[in-house]
Amino acid sequence: MILINGGSYKMGDFTGESFANERPVHDVTLNSFYMSKYQLTVGEFRDFIEESGYITDCEKQKGGKVFLVENGKQTYLHDSLASWKYVGYIPTDNQPVVFVSWIDAINYCNWKSKKENLQCCYEIIGDSVFWDKSAKGYRLLTEAEWEFVARSGGKNYKFAWGNDSLPMINGQKAANIKDETYKKANSPDAKLKPVWEGYEDGYVYTSPVGSFAPNELGLYDMCGNVYEWCWDWKDDNYYSESPFNNPDGPATGTVRACRNVSNICPIEQIATTHRGRAEPNSFGVNMGFRIGQSK
Question: Using an 8 Å Cβ cutoff, are 226 and 67 in contact?
Fold first, then answer.
C-alpha cells in the first residue's frame, strides 16, 4: 500500500475531447488515503478463496466469455469453465485476477480486513452494501480517488503516463494496451478496431502486475491490463451535482463504476478520465480490482 497525500484537483475531461459523461470538469478535494501499488493478483485472490471457501459470481453462473487469439483469429465465446482460475488458459499467480464481480471484490476487502484484525468497511445485508467510512479496513477506491492517482496527483495528464503520444515513462514502456503486439497476433486480413500504432507492449493477454513503469506516485498499471472496480454507483449526470469534498458517487443506482482500461479495449477508452460501468454481480475476462484504505 502506498500513502497518497490528499489534495485538490479539477476532476473530469479537461481536454473536451472525451465522452460527455466525463464532464463537466469540477473541483474536488480528497483526504489522504492508501492505495495498493498493484492490481490484485490471482495468487492473492486464491488465498482468499482457499481460506474462506467463497464462491464467486462467475462460478455460481457457470462461467463467462473468454477472449483468445489463436492461429491469427480472435474469439470471444462463453466457456463454462471460465473463472478467476481459468481464463481460456491457466493464469500465473502474479497476473491480475479477473472474472470477479463488484460483490466479489467487496467480500475480498472484508476478508482481508478481518485477517489483519481491522474493522471491516462494508456491511452486507441481502443485496445491499453499506460503507462505514470510519472503518480503517480495506475497501475499493472511489472514482475521484482513482482518477486523482491516475493523473499523478490530479495533474492535467490525458494518459496515465502523461501527455506523450506513446505510452512511455522515462524511456520505459508504461502500459499493456491494445497495440501492435495485439495486431501482429491476428492475421493480416482480420478486421480489427484501431490499435495504438507504433507501440508494442509484448503481451497479447494480461501481463504480470508491475511489468511496466509506475506513474509519478509509484503506482503500477494505472493504464491497461484490466479494468478496476470502484465503490461508486455510476450516473452519467453525477458530475453536475458532485460534492466538493471526497465525493463517493450517487446514493443509489443500478451499475457500479469501474476505471482504467483493459488490454483488449478500444483505444479511445484509454484516457485517465474514462468512466466504465457494470452491474454489481457481473464479471468479465477484463475485469479486476485494486484495494484502498482510509488514512
Answer: no
Structurally, the chain folds into a number of domains equal to: 1
Residue type, 54: Y
Q: What is the pLDDT of residues 237-270, one digit of tens each?
A: 999 999 999 999 999 999 999 999 999 999 999 9
Residue span of the structural domain in which 124 resides: 2-294
Tell me the Ramachandran region of residue 17: left when phi exceeds 0, alpha when psi lies from -120 to 50, beta otherwise: alpha
If you write DSSP's letter for every residue of 8-40 in order, what string do you get? EEEES-TTS-S-GGG-S-EEEEE--EEE-SSPP
The CB density around residue 103, as the number of other CB atoms within 10 Å, is: 20
C-beta separation of 294 from 3 below 8 A: no
- In 3D, which of 185, 159, 188, 148 has the Cα closest to residue 264? 185
Name the packing angle between helices 102-115 and 42-52 (round to 10°): 70
DSSP annotation of 105: H
- CATH code for position 134: 3.90.1580.10
Chain segment 107-153, per-residue pLDDT in tens: 999 999 999 999 999 999 999 999 999 999 999 999 999 999 999 99
Burial group, residue 185, by CB count within 10 angstroms (0-12, 13-18, 19+) = middle
